[in-house]
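Agenda item 2: zinc ion complex prediction
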Amino acid sequence: MNQRADLLLTNGIVVTADQNNTIIHNGDIAVKDGKIIAIGENLDIEADKKESLNRSIIMPGLINSHTHAAMTLLRGYSDDLPLMEWLADIAPAEGSLVGGDVYAGTFLACLEMLKAGTTCFADMYFFEEEAAKAAVDAGIKIIAGEGILNFPTPSAAAPEHALEITEALCSKYKNHPLVKICVAPHSAYLLDEKYLLRSGEISMKYNIPLMIHVSETASEVAQIKEKTGKTPIRYLDSLGLLNKNLLAVHCVVMDNEEIELFRKNNVKVSHNPESNMKLASGISPVPEMLEKGICIALGTDGAASNNDLCLLSEMDTAAKLHKVNKLDPTVVSARQALRMATIDSARALGIENETGSLEIGKDADLLVLNHNLPGLNPLYSPESHIVYAASRREVGDVYVKGKKMVSQGNIVHSDTVSAIRNVNKIISKFEKKIIKTQ
Ligand SMILES: [Zn+2]
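Presented output:
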């Protein structure tokens, strides 16, 4: 190897999440131009910068397959309600949002996610161009989806407008280093058939994910059945939307035939257990889907229904929820939960060739967990610690495309204090609205 690296990280416990779940117990990683150029034991490579990991766990940066980042603005705004009542409760505040609010809320979300080891997230909200700008400024990867709904949103007067925004974003961010675009029709209950079909066409035209909430609650399923005579999944199937680009979010209420439809059509699922638990929506049949080989990604959903954006805790919850639900500790293993938040989220978003595992040629999106904290010692199994013991408190360094964005738990390139201050200014606007409507 004659290539000189920009950065050489040495002496780490490397959890690769590659096809064989390889763990290198004393490993080095060499990075050049933001990509991993070598990985293994005792690499003989010159580098401009060398850093010892001192036996810390290093793993792929986490990938949040579904969120509404700007909803950090509404964290704790409305709790302890079922989905439909909760949506109605937050609607007036959401309706008052302007582009700058979405930027500020998303920016804060990006800092929160980076500090929790997340290096990429898929977003569905309004003013997605502002969300994309915030992600770029924060230095995190985004897959941005302008929310498409039947009714006017703060950024789109009609669904046609939201579809136009989506296509404009596809052109604007073609080949951008941090931004990709997805099509984001909210759901079959909030969007009419012709726009669902248009969404599918755009997804095919640009070969990008189509992210949609599906079968989140029993009442949603009843509503769609009444409207179409079919369950939401069968309805989407009748529209020809079940395909490799479909990222079906939630999928709580499903039968075996629908699971088979997903398998047959290579549909991907974003599992958001904490949001499903908080809204008491139910439990997605994840073990059954895993059994069928369906790709399950992990997501937090928005901070208004979670109420954090931490995938470390989401992995822990996912593994434990299904164990207790099935009364079987063998379902959703630590390894499976870890893959859901890394390589399988990447597969679900169509970015598995560039991120999601530590392999030569992929982006150096890296998460280092601090080794010297009581909560991560002693160490028998790195995968076990990542899923069952680590929290965002143990996050040390985080790299996006080889650039250190978090150092020893602290954001490096952004001003966290002013990000919080900006959000608090917006919050005061909501409070005034609440007083007025009361
Ligand atoms: Zn959602």
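Discussion summary: Residues 72 and 229 are 37 Å apart (CA to CA).
Owner for follow-up: CH.
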